[in-house]
Design brief:
2 copies of one chain form a homodimer. The first copy, chain A, has about 500 residues and is α/β, with parallel strands linked by helices. Chain A contains 19 helices and 19 strands. In chain A, about 45% of the residues lie in helices and about 15% in strands. In chain A, strand 18 (about 380-385) and strand 19 form a beta hairpin.
Chain lengths: ~500, ~500
């Protein structure tokens, strides 16, 4: 035991150094927002949406299926439970939600990369869930474990990304029953940024929590949130056992959970944005309340994922004005509940990292950032409505994430920013290029994007007339060439490998 | 005289019909904003910026060069004029600014396309100024009058664009001394949306005003703003005679003027965003004050154009977070002055309509729209930092402009939007696809973009795996095939042609 403690101590020293190691992203671990929130709706509108959510909770009710334990918990808490339908007084639900922390830390294995989630803090995490990947050279294909590894390395390298997320792509060449183990190991070994765990089955959630306990050591694990699960409700108004079991495993172990109603308005919710926002509010509130019944004070992230649809085909659309509106409104509603919010991301329906992908992602992500989302899954790499992770898209989005962080930092207005002294040097009709004020600030005055080409057309043509996608291809390949793994305590690494070997030997290969 | 009046009367009838004519854009003439403004800075910060602008006006002063008449006007108004330096009490400048209308109408020759500028109204105008054009087939080349004509037709066809602007590209194959006449005629004949006039020389401004008087008839002209000029100050703190003459011609004739400080921070203003915003405020205020000295009550648009720069090369950058911040702040400052604001646009340094162009344009334009800009020049078509008009970029940006208009319209929260009745029909875990509420709203629930492809990858591949730029190429070509000129009174058309023929015979061919 003393042996383990000292090895963790030396590991921590290694981590402190590694923040500056070659190849690692050196950047703030998360955003401390300094600009005000935008009040898109006035009080009256917010109250209307809340009243609708309360009505759904009390009158329509929420289905809790396949999980008698959850129903029993609700019964004991004082809800009206008929069959699998739970109708809970809105006051009870709100009271339960009030025990969830307004903000909390997720500890990373490198302490300098720990993130604070909630309040005025904003954390940008990578794409989550796509079965396919695409890059300029390899085209579109099923994701493989080799892709997964490269994507984790890139999320580690890219300074605009704070958090690795989890399923950066599905590693489809590994049996479903075992892939969570390999995915967890790659996040833990190839990156030192925080990440999420598995939720698809209770045992996989338990494996995630067990591996996090090994990685961080039991003392750190027991006193902190070091891992979270991310689950979706089954909208409309259905919470299945994947959700309740994940809540029990993560929150029951003192860890955190993100629950997001995923609503394609017109299918899983009403075809109106207001109706779908209210439904999402009700669904997220009941899940937060359940998490607090499992363990009062458990870290809970209030999730929201609302999409519009094409009126021509019924296909989901992204980056459209209705979800942009929903970001601002759900931001206001989450703050009234004093809960950390997950919403938005760099979302698009585009198949490649073309102009459509960029317009849609920018409109989606700028509003996500301005709306005050505290945890942004899907902030980089998403294509095809979430079916595909783009390697070029990942580095392109990450470049823009860095720009949004400058926006969120606000406008310095001190005397030096007002530059009165410069006007003593520069006459009207002169220029500021050589002024002392300019020379003093030249190096740091503006955000310097990695992938935007601002040169004249002649220089751009001389360098091969590359569009942004081609430059992004070069950048991610260069990042991988420069990659160096962050240090890890060999004893911890060994313990993780032992755990994985044991679990793999216990589990059958299964592809579903 | 009675003859002219009746011909104008019949023309008006023609215009009323033409709003629905084949090929014409059928859409609201401008945006009536229903969402709140975003208070990016608090009172204290705004006061600091205003104090700095006042200090610049009073202590540093503004140069008015090459124009003794303007200096004499300032002297008579009570300013301290030494040589060409004008120092004016901030109180005097603010008092003069207060006589400019907070909002005003610009009458279009088709009354259904007249726009209201200022207050909660927002007008999106096309790209202005590029000497080059680019399209997928023809590549990059100097703009020609044939390009200019096609671009005017497209601005007329595209429903996201409210206003034609003026120099949609430079028609470089027409002598500089005469091209303003051809450009004006094409705007007047090929479109019935409002547009701007020439400013590069006093006589060209006068020609613009004369042609507008012919187009609208003297009664409409004398009682309304039917045309505006758009000029830039010569930052830092220099107002040359191009500006003062344009103000005298346009405002002296009861028409409007836009004056925009164009500041590349670090060159024409301090390298800090705050410093450059304050300088821009001072420059725009003094020009507004001058316009009101020329004619109290003249329509004035408070312009702003602030760019950051690449720290590597000094090249201007666009779509970066610093100008995004400036949009929000200048919006607040303009509203405190109760002046209509021009700022922002779909700006980018990209050479083609690739992902860089889209990311930068979206970030620039979404913030422009949210910031409450009342008149947005450069809202569609801009490439290469304004050196090039892109045909594909024009239709792509216009598609996004339509989306921002949905955002600005806000969130309906009436009973129907909350869809309580749908929950009587749809059980938890059901779906809303066939519900009466969905069927009632299916056709109009969501913004339907023209150029975003939301289909699955298989359908997209079947249609040739086209990226957005390729789809945009097809769209603008199809729009031009569908184009029908809006009707015009033949007598007015004849009068315009006569005027142009006479002026061309008076003017030498000059290429500068």
């Amino acid at each position: 035991m003393s042996n383990r403690r000292s090895s963790r101590a030396s590991r921590r020293e290694g981590q402190a150094r590694c923040a500056g190691a070659a190849g690692a992203a050196v950047a703030p671990a998360y955003v401390k927002r300094r600009i005000p929130f935008y009040a898109f709706l006035e009080e009256e509108g917010l109250v209307r949406l809340e009243a609708q959510a309360d009505w759904l909770l009390q009158e329509i009710g929420i289905e809790f299926r396949e999980d008698p334990e959850a129903l029993e918990t609700w019964r004991r808490a004082g809800a009206d439970v008929k069959g699998t339908r739970v109708r809970a007084p809105a006051e009870l639900v709100r009271q339960l939600c009030s025990t969830a922390p307004p903000e909390f830390d997720q500890i990373a294995r490198n302490p300098s990369r720990s993130v604070r989630i909630g309040g005025r803090n904003q954390v940008f995490a990578a794409v989550y869930g796509p079965p396919f990947v695409r890059d300029l050279e390899g085209g579109r294909r099923y994701g493989a474990i080799a892709d997964f590894e490269r994507l984790v390395k890139l999320t580690y390298m890219l300074p605009g990304i704070h958090h690795g997320g989890f399923v950066v792509c599905e590693p489809c060449d590994v049996p479903v029953s075992k892939r969570h183990l390999d995915m967890l190991y790659l996040h833990m070994r190839c990156s030192d940024k925080p990440h999420l765990g598995a939720i698809t089955e209770q045992s996989r959630a338990e494996d995630s929590v067990s591996m996090a306990r090994i990685l961080h050591g039991p003392e750190v694990f027991d006193r902190n949130c070091v891992i979270l699960g991310n689950v979706n409700t089954n909208s409309p108004l259905l919470v299945d056992k994947v959700v309740t079991e994940a809540i029990r495993v993560y929150c029951g172990n003192g860890q955190g959970i993100i629950v997001s109603p995923f609503i394609l308005a017109g299918a899983m919710g009403p075809v109106s944005t207001a109706g779908s926002i209210a439904q999402a509010l009700a669904e997220a509130m009941i899940c937060c309340a359940y998490s607090q019944l499992v363990r009062p004070g458990a870290p809970f992230i209030f999730g929201n994922f609302l999409s519009s649809m094409s009126l021509k085909s019924g296909a989901p659309t992204f980056g459209m004005p209705e979800p942009v509106i929903s970001h601002y409104v759900i931001g206001q509603l989450a703050r009234r509940l004093k809960l950390p919010l997950r919403c938005g991301g760099s979302l698009t329906a585009a198949k490649t990292a073309d102009a459509q992908a960029a317009y849609e992602s920018a409109d989606s992500m700028q509003s996500t950032a301005l709306a005050g989302a505290n945890f942004v899954l899907q902030s980089a790499g998403w294509l095809e409505g979430g079916l595909c992770t783009g390697f070029e898209k990942l580095v392109m989005d990450a470049d823009r994430l860095a720009a949004y962080q400058v926006l969120l930092a606000g406008l310095p207005l001190d005397d030096d920013a007002l530059a009165r002294d410069a006007y003593g040097e520069v006459e009207p009709a002169g220029h500021f290029l050589g002024s002392a004020h300019t020379l003093r600030h030249y190096q740091s005055a503006f955000h310097e994007p990695a992938l935007s080409d601002s040169e004249n057309v002649e220089s751009w043509e001389e360098r091969g007339s590359q569009d942004m996608q081609q430059r992004a291809f070069e950048r991610w390949n260069q990042l991988l060439r420069d990659y160096e793994a962050p240090p890890i305590d060999p004893a911890v690494d060994e313990a993780l490998k032992d755990f994985i070997a044991r679990r793999k030997s216990e589990l059958p290969d299964a592809w579903y």
